[in-house]
Amino acid sequence: MEAIDVRKAYANHVALSGVSLAIPEGSIFGLLGPNGAGKTSLIRIITQITGADEGEIRFRGERLNPAHIAEIGYLPEERGLYKKMKVGEQLLYLAQLRGLSRSDATARIKQWLNRFEIKEWAGKNVEDLSKGMQQKVQFIATVLHEPKLIILDEPFSGFDPINANLLKDEILRLKQEGASIIFSTHRMESVEEMCDHIALINRSRKVLDGPVGLIRDQFKTNTYEVEGKGKLMVVHPDFEVLEQKERENGHFYARVQLHAGVRPNDLLRYLIGAVEVEAFREKIPSINEIFIRRVRETMPETLVEETVN
Amino acid sequence: MASKFLLVAQREYLTRVRKKAFIVLTLAVPLLLAGFGVFVAKIASSDNDTTDVVEVRDDSGLNVASRLVSTPQLRFETAAGTLAEAKKGFQKAKHDGLVYLPAGLDVEKPTGVQFFGKGNISLKKQLAVENALNKAFSELKMQKSGLSQEQLDRLRSKVDLQAISLDETGKEANSNALATSGMSYALALAIYLFIFIYGVQIMRGVGEEKSSRIMEVMLSSVKPFDLMMGKIMGIAAVGLTQFLMWGLLSFGASSVLLPLVTKDDQPKTEVAATPASASGAAAASDDEPRSAAATFDKNMQQGTKQANPASRLNIFETLANLPLGTILFGFIVYFLGGYLLYGALFGAVGAAVDDQTDTQQFMMPITMPLILSYIVGVSVILRNPDGPVAFWMSMIPFTSPIAMVIRLPFGVPAWQLALSIFLLILGFIGTVWVAARIYRVGILMYGKKVTYKELGKWMFYKG
């Protein structure tokens, strides 16, 4: 899926200004950004709930059209089902609206309810289920028609840790089966371990996108974390100690940044001579940190407000 | 996406029809209606079945007693003996009253006639007796002025007015204003109720979808227009089912229950009972109030007497003479057109507001023309179906569904009907268009207090 220069404006604010994205097939794509950045607007354009003012969305090279509804599954942030409808009927209805035949839908509903071990709920009204159960039902409704593209808006909010893990496993399984998945969330740490690609959106603009590994490399600062026993020398021409903390029993924790051209082994060699090293690892920036750094570089005026979110 | 539209309509239909409330209501209303009908029939018949026996002590020597005409409701019996004996006698005999005509009564100025009753005398009984006495005395007077008994008998014959309407081609048709009005009224009421009950259901349904936050899921698979129209059509089907069931069940229940209540094999149906009161009211209008009541009462008796097969045949004949084809066609057109027009607006209101309690301010402008057309329709158009008010109201799409069906049984020129239907179609295309735009924006709008200005803006939003 591709978004090309998408713009969307509402009456009194711009939701998206010139956002272009490419979502590789079979990957998990993280659409990240603070609240109000424009994530939901973009998703609504992809799911054809609204149209873009300018630009276009391509799905496997084709311009997005109503036939693609059957290929897309969408779990909105605002979860909702018909309260007075039975679980089984509800799933059947939603699946049929997505273009599934009655018999196919019935068979798949049975299969999914078995997988989540909630078969006995099929005859219950949705309003009688707990919130977590409703979430599961809604997830089933999202993927029942075996979409090629699954869009999950804040997927883990409202799930307890056990069910969140169950959901993660299902998502990974769906990916194995060839579906592309878009995660949209403002809680970046919650999905960063799952995503292959990410795009960061802030204030209606894309600030960064690419494969997660690449982005991390790009934002690496050659900083290492060291833990050990003894006292670290503070001054050295090849590296700089950014932070040092004393711990109990003469232990310490330090963050050390290497200067250009210096390799980690050089630091390690120096450390071995000076202290007793217990831990040595590269400090990899989290997506959150990258986001803040990136925003600070590109649009510092927005930062104060965003970090509040 | 015709199939999705159907799916939505199907869901709306099935979930509603399967609700307990729907089933209960569908079964209970005809029973209530039939029960009410039985109740009215029972009261009417018990009122007519009992015969008041009034004894007459005639000392006047004018032979008034023999001229008092007994009706099925009121029987006069001559009492023997003195007044004191008669007074005791009628109470012993459990008769209802005693009329005393004193000696030396002047035919020209009959004063001093007394009516004794057990306990309080009802106005109805008093009026009936008075009426009979009046008649007797006027006969006496006529005889005095030289009319023979034979002539008097001839004069007594009752006039049964048969109204005949001439249409433009000069074809005669039995016209019974009452049957025609009744039909108009029934049609208008059906449309009014239908639009109201099911329009509000549309609104609540949209509100429910909005508050349960399922809109986004739905919209990612269905176009807002399909969703709205599916809902409107599904609910229309629910309404039609309910009305049909009510019709059938009421008919069934009444036809089973009514014969059980009315003892004689000539069931006094409501249809038969109505012409009496209405013609009585009409006749009463030119009298002074007090005697109006008397006339009314007299008519009441005549009316019920009239409820014989012949007069009922007349009503059915009238109904059969109405332009039934046109009425049926018109009814369906205005029924659907009016429902669509208002249904779309109700849907838009449901979409525009978050909270059911906020709907009031937007309901007003929708319900006003509906209520207005009903009230004006029943009070003005029914009386003057060809007047200017009737004409204009049957042209404006917001009022025409009710105004025009009221006019239909009275006959409407073809060009007016065509123009009105054309305007109605334009009207509902217009409101559906407006509603779809408000709907499309409104259903995803949360936590915002909506104003009319805002709604105006929504109409011109792009995609």
From TrEMBL, chain B:
<keyword id="KW-0812">Transmembrane</keyword>
<dbReference type="Pfam" id="PF12698">
    <property type="entry name" value="ABC2_membrane_3"/>
</dbReference>
<feature type="transmembrane region" description="Helical">
    <location>
        <begin position="414"/>
        <end position="439"/>
    </location>
</feature>
<dbReference type="InterPro" id="IPR051449">
    <property type="entry name" value="ABC-2_transporter_component"/>
</dbReference>
<feature type="transmembrane region" description="Helical">
    <location>
        <begin position="322"/>
        <end position="342"/>
    </location>
</feature>
<feature type="domain" description="ABC-2 type transporter transmembrane">
    <location>
        <begin position="20"/>
        <end position="436"/>
    </location>
</feature>
<dbReference type="GO" id="GO:0005886">
    <property type="term" value="C:plasma membrane"/>
</dbReference>
<feature type="transmembrane region" description="Helical">
    <location>
        <begin position="362"/>
        <end position="382"/>
    </location>
</feature>
<feature type="transmembrane region" description="Helical">
    <location>
        <begin position="21"/>
        <end position="41"/>
    </location>
</feature>
<keyword id="KW-1133">Transmembrane helix</keyword>
<dbReference type="InterPro" id="IPR013525">
    <property type="entry name" value="ABC2_TM"/>
</dbReference>
<protein>
    <submittedName>
        <fullName>ABC transporter permease</fullName>
    </submittedName>
</protein>
<keyword id="KW-1003">Cell membrane</keyword>
<keyword id="KW-0472">Membrane</keyword>
<feature type="transmembrane region" description="Helical">
    <location>
        <begin position="183"/>
        <end position="202"/>
    </location>
</feature>
<dbReference type="GO" id="GO:0140359">
    <property type="term" value="F:ABC-type transporter activity"/>
</dbReference>
<feature type="transmembrane region" description="Helical">
    <location>
        <begin position="389"/>
        <end position="408"/>
    </location>
</feature>
